[in-house]
Structure to design on (215 residues):
């Protein structure tokens, strides 16, 4: 759509004499559209943040692009009404560039999500804090996330007291997972229990000794 608008604007710039004079009603329509779209943008963006939906965020910014377009169109209409007919195709050219740029941005973000992009560091830190606040968790490391649509799939190594039994460590891991799933938009969290302040073979790169063959 952005490309089509750019092409139409270029054709008008090549023959400015063919640009017709607009009616003043068009300016009022552009103004009303600007106010309506800006209000819609603010409402949808607030809703998108509340439900954490990237689709709603994209739709909200689509409304904001309409509002910005209406502003540019309004300037072009004022110029047209004042006798500067070239401002009409120039405004159309600017709007076309805005639409193309926003479309590319949404496509680029969606492509990264399809490639299992990790969530931003702020959200990773929030998940880490929830894990650390779980009773029995002494530390967290190797927290990894990837997006699945608007949800998150994560895995983490949690550190617990080495003197605890396997059952006690398991209960802490279950509690940590439930807290994360309840507080964040995490679809699933896989936890690995490590002893706190003890050598960790799967990170130190130390391979277990192979017992010697019995003669």
């Amino acid at each position: 759509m952005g490309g089509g608008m750019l092409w139409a604007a270029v054709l008008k710039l090549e023959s400015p004499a063919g640009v017709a004079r607009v009616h003043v009603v068009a300016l009022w329509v552009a103004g009303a559209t600007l106010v309506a779209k800006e209000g819609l943008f603010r409402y949808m963006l607030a809703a998108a943040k509340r439900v954490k939906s990237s689709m709603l965020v994209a739709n909200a910014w689509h409304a904001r692009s309409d509002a910005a377009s209406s502003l540019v169109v309004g300037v072009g209409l004022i110029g047209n009404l004042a006798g500067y007919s070239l401002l009409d195709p120039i405004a159309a050219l600017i709007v076309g560039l805005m639409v193309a740029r926003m479309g590319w941005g949404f496509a680029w973000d969606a492509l990264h999500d399809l490639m299992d992009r990790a969530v931003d560091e702020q959200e990773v830190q929030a998940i880490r804090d929830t894990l650390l606040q779980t009773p029995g968790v002494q530390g967290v490391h190797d927290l990894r996330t990837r997006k699945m649509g608007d949800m998150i799939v994560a895995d983490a190594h949690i550190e617990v007291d080495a003197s605890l039994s396997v059952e006690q460590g398991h209960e802490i891991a279950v509690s940590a997972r439930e807290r994360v799933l309840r507080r964040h938009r995490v679809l699933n969290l896989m936890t690995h229990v490590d002893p706190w302040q003890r050598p960790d073979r799967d990170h130190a790169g130390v391979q277990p000794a192979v017992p010697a063959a019995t003669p």
Q: What stands out?
A: The domain at 121-198 is CATH 3.30.70.1350 (Alpha-Beta Plaits). Residues 28 and 72 are 13 Å apart (CA to CA). The radius of gyration is 28 Å. The chain is about 60% helix and 15% strand.
